[in-house]
Amino acid sequence: AISNPKQASSWDVGDVMAVTWGTRSIAGNVRISISRNGGKNYQGITTENDGVYDWAVTGPASVNCMLKIEPVDDATKGTTQGLFSIVDPTDGLVAYYPFAGSAGDMSGSGHDGTAAGAAPGEDRFGNAGYAYGFDGQDDEISIPDHADLQLTGAMTLSAWIKREGTWDQSGRIVCKRSDVSGDGYGMEVAHPSGKLRFHLHMNDSFSSTAAIPMDEWTHVAVTFDSAASKVRLYINGELDSEHST
């Protein structure tokens, strides 16, 4: 059986995926194949049957990805993994912060952040220095204001987060304010409910139905469809709720 990637997991283009599988029922070299259309077509490579293969994730992006591992000499004994997602973080990107040793913007737009109090830590893959920890009080990463970040129309905000410890106020993930115009937006974990919450123009707020779990990495995302006047909140790639603005 394939133990990694997990079903319903999400991977960015450029991530290194440690494809992991059990070798007991598979003999000889194996072929690892990926489908981006739910298993209709596969493309793959041949490698040794040692139970692990590090794959630098490539595009194109898809929410219908599947992996298949099969013996080169006997394709009938292959094993498949259920759907997972590949996301291209550079498609229409304004800013991108993988925290690869710094708070720099890797989108190429130059919206670099400055960490104040936030401590480097391990990311969801266990890589040291590829995440930041915040104390829930005054730790932050600040980014200079720019016209690129003054979003008033359609937008998407997303992040990998991990709730830990106790806290007595909402935990901001992304926050953009404008004291002059009233425009702004923000995504946070609400206190005390632990739900994902989105602020639009700093007046309207919309919350998820489910709470963000404690002590585990969770992917959260919010989309604002300005044409349809809809806000949608996602947890681990699944639509949690939809709201009219």
TrEMBL record:
<dbReference type="InterPro" id="IPR013320">
    <property type="entry name" value="ConA-like_dom_sf"/>
</dbReference>
<dbReference type="Pfam" id="PF13385">
    <property type="entry name" value="Laminin_G_3"/>
</dbReference>
<protein>
    <recommendedName>
        <fullName>LamG-like jellyroll fold domain-containing protein</fullName>
    </recommendedName>
</protein>
